[in-house]
Design a protein that fits this description.
Blueprint: H1 5-8, E1 12-17, E2 23-28, E3 31-33, E4 36-40, H2 55-63, E5 65-72, E6 81-92, H3 96-108, E7 122-134
Antiparallel strand pairs: 1-2, 1-5, 3-4, 4-7, 5-6, 6-7
Length: about 140
């Protein structure tokens, strides 16, 4: 691959499922620090004011598994590529690891200067499997 999409991408898709295996996919911001991917439950507008009621959070708590897709789209299909990360998932509400992930997220996304993360909880995906694909066959 030309570069590591996990390190350079600004957005990804988080897939979770509930106890009935109904899938749920949302776009996320994230940082990766091997072997964990961190995504905050930040203060951008959401369907619920209570982050615990968000479907992705309920699914993580119920199922404990998640997948993340980071991709590049181009009309030239030889430039298409993606990374799929699969693993266990949980929610960090407090602690040194959560605090470090917040620091990394604020460094990656300058937008958080205007929407501080503060005490935001963080979804942690512990990556167990990584699959990469490229339309160029790399």
């Amino acid at each position: 691959m030309k570069d590591d999409l996990v390190a350079t991408a600004r957005v990804a898709r988080l897939a979770t499922s509930d106890q009935y295996a109904r899938p749920h996919v949302v776009p996320i911001v994230f940082v990766y620090e091997h072997p964990h991917l961190y995504s905050p439950i930040d203060r951008k507008p959401k369907r619920s004011d209570d982050w615990r009621r968000l479907r992705r959070v309920q699914n993580v708590v119920t199922n404990g598994r998640a997948s993340v897709v980071i991709d590049v789209w181009d009309e030239d299909w030889s430039k298409l590529r993606y990374v799929l990360l699969e693993g266990t998932a949980d929610v960090l509400e407090v602690g040194d690891e959560r605090d470090r992930s917040i620091t990394l997220l604020e460094a990656k996304y300058p937008q958080y200067a205007n929407i501080p993360l503060g005490d935001a909880p963080v979804i942690r995906v512990t990556v167990e499997r990584r699959l990469e694909w490229s339309g160029a066959g790399e």
